[in-house]
Design goal:
Pfam families: PRA1. The structure is a single chain. By secondary structure, the chain is mainly alpha-helical. It has one domain. The protein is built from 7 helices and 2 strands; from the N terminus they run αααααββαα. It has a two-stranded antiparallel sheet.
Length: 168
Amino acid sequence: MAATSGMAKNVEQFLKRVRKWDVEFLCLGQTKESFNMPRPEDAMARMTANLEYFAANYAFCLALFALIAVVIYPQLLVLVCCFSGLWYALLTRPPHIKVQVAAILVTKSHMKYALAGVNGLVVLIFARTMIFATIGASLLFVLAHAALHEVPSKAKGKMEEKEAEREP
C-alpha cells in the first residue's frame, strides 16, 4: 500500500509541473511571450530554460508521438500487443518461480532479462525505421519549440540565477 501512495505522490508532483497548454505552451492569445528567432548567443540558454520549464509538457508530447506512431503503423501495434501479453504473463508469475531447462535452473529474473533482450532485438529488427522516424520527429518538435519559444517570465529568474552562479 505504501508503494501505491508513493507512486500517487510522484504522479501528483509530475502533473503539477504541467504548464497551461493554451496560454503558456502554445502562446495562444499572448503577445509578450511568443515564438521568435533567438540570437545565436542566446539560443542555448533559451533552449535549456525552456526544456527545464516545460519538461512535463514535453513528456506528454513525446508520449503522444509514440501513441500516434503505434496507431499509424499497424506493425508497431502488433508488436506492442504481443510483447505486452508476454510481459503480463511473466510479471504475474510468483516471485520465486524457477524453471528447469536441461541442466540449468532459470529464475524469474533470468526470464525478465531474456524477454527484455528478445523484445529489444525483435523491435530493432522489425520496426527500427518507424521507431527512429518517430524519435526524430518528436525530438525535432521538442527542440524547435524550446528554441523558438520565448523564455517565460516565471523561468527567467531561475535562468538568471544559474548564469550568476557560473560567472566567477
